[in-house]
Write a structure and sequence with these properties.
Blueprint: H1 3-15, H2 20-31, H3 36-43, H4 61-70, H5 86-92, H6 96-110, E1 119-124, E2 130-133, E3 139-142, E4 146-151, E5 154-167, E6 176-179, E7 184-187, E8 191-196, E9 203-209, E10 212-216, E11 219-223, E12 227-232, E13 235-240, E14 253-260, H7 261-272, E15 276-278, E16 287-293, H8 297-306, E17 310-315, E18 318-323
Length: about 325
C-alpha cells in the first residue's frame, strides 16, 4: 500500500464504505511508518474542512485517530451514537476515531444535524486519467497517482496531491485556489499544469494562458504564459518552458530538456502505470533532452537505452533499471 491508496481507504472510511480488510490494510500500513503522527495528519488533513480559519478541531484529535486505528479495542474518543448511523459505525470498525473526528466536523459546521460529508474527492490510480468538471465550470484533467478534494460549498478552492491540468472558469469576484503539499496557487481564469506530490522533493506549476500567483513559505511569485515556477529546496524559482509541453501528458506527449532519468521514469509510472525496480541508483541522475509523441512505453524505454548509460529488463510485473552513473 502507498500513500495514495491509504488516502482512498480513509475516504471510504469517512463515507462508511470501507471493508474490514481495507481497514486492516490501513492499520498495517500505518504501523509500518516511522512518523505516525505526520502520516495521520497527511491522511486526514482536518483543516481542509473548515470554512473559517479561526475554527479548529479539539486538541489531540490526530493522536486519537492514530490510537484508534492501531488499537481498535481502546475506547479513545467518546462518541454520541445518535450522530451517526449504525452502518457507518460498523463500517468504520477499527478506524472509529476517524469517524469521531468527523463528528466534530458535523457538529461545528451543521449545528448538530446529520448531513452529507462536506467535501467531494476523486482519486486516480497510476496509468489512468480522469476528466473532471467542477460546479463553477472549471475543467481539469487529473493525472495518475493523484487525488483531488474540494468543499461541496466552495468548488473554487481545491486540494491537490499529484498532478493536474486546469482550465479555470473565469470569475473576477472569486479567485480559484489550489492548495498542494508545497505551495498555494491562486488564479482568476487561466489554464496551467501543476505538479505537487507529497512524496516528491520538487513541485512546479507552468502556465499556458492567463496569470497565476504562487505562495510558499512566505515567498510569492507570479507566472504568465510560457513561465514555470518551481519550489526547490524551499526556494521559488522561475524559468521559461515551451507552452506546447504544458499538460502534454494528457495526449501522451513528453518534452524533456535535460530531465533526469528519475523524473522521466516517474512520468512513465504515473501515466502508464509501470513499476520500476532500481538496481543501480546512480543512473537516475543521468539527464536526457528528447521528445516522445504518442509512442508506446516500450518504445520510450528502447530510445532511452539507445541514448546510452541505462538498460531495462522486464521481470514479472516490474522493470529492472541498471546502468552507470553519468559524468
Amino acid at each position: 500500500m502507498d500513500i495514495l491508496e491509504a488516502k482512498v481507504i480513509v475516504q471510504k472510511v469517512l463515507e462508511g464504505n470501507a471493508t474490514h480488510g481495507e481497514i486492516a490494510g490501513l492499520r498495517a500500513f500505518i504501523e509500518g511508518q516511522p512518523d505516525k503522527d505526520a502520516l495521520v495528519a497527511t491522511l486526514f488533513p482536518a483543516g481542509e474542512f473548515w470554512d473559517q480559519e479561526e475554527k479548529a478541531l479539539p486538541g489531540g484529535v490526530e493522536q486519537r485517530v492514530l490510537k484508534a486505528i492501531l488499537h481498535p479495542q481502546a475506547p479513545v474518543v467518546p462518541l454520541r451514537r445518535r450522530w451517526f448511523s449504525g452502518r457507518r459505525l460498523a463500517a468504520a470498525g477499527a478506524a472509529a476515531a476517524l469517524v469521531a473526528a468527523c463528528f466534530f466536523l458535523y457538529k461545528a459546521n451543521t449545528g448538530g444535524h446529520p448531513t452529507a460529508m462536506l467535501y467531494d474527492s476523486v482519486a486516480v490510480g497510476e496509468g489512468h486519467f480522469e476528466n473532471i468538471v467542477l460546479g463553477d465550470g472549471t475543467h481539469l484533467t487529473l493525472n495518475g497517482g493523484s487525488i483531488l478534494r474540494w468543499l461541496k460549498t466552495n468548488n473554487r478552492e481545491v486540494y491537490l496531491d499529484g498532478e493536474a491540468f486546469f482550465d479555470v472558469a473565469r470569475d473576477s469576484l472569486r479567485p480559484f485556489v489550489i492548495h498542494s503539499p508545497s505551495f498555494t496557487t491562486t488564479v482568476l481564469g487561466t489554464s496551467f499544469d501543476i505538479r505537487s506530490r507529497s512524496r516528491e522533493a520538487i513541485s512546479r506549476v507552468a502556465v499556458a494562458t492567463g496569470k497565476i500567483r504562487i505562495d510558499a513559505g512566505g515567498q510569492r511569485s507570479f507566472a504568465t504564459p510560457g513561465q514555470q515556477v518551481s519550489l526547490i529546496r524551499d526556494s521559488l524559482r522561475k524559468s521559461t518552458v515551451d507552452i506546447a509541453s504544458i499538460g502534454s501528458w494528457k495526449e501522451h506527449r513528453f518534452y524533456y530538456d535535460r530531465a533526469s532519468l528519475k523524473d522521466i521514469l516517474g512520468d512513465l509510472e504515473t501515466v502508464y502505470g509501470l513499476h520500476f525496480n532500481i538496481i543501480d541508483p546512480d543512473v537516475l541522475s543521468c539527464t536526457y533532452s528528447t521528445t516522445f509523441k504518442n509512442v508506446s512505453p516500450d518504445d520510450i524505454l528502447e530510445t532511452l537505452t539507445l541514448m546510452g548509460r541505462v538498460h531495462f529488463t522486464k521481470k514479472d510485473d516490474r522493470i529492472e533499471v541498471t546502468g552507470k552513473a553519468c559524468r
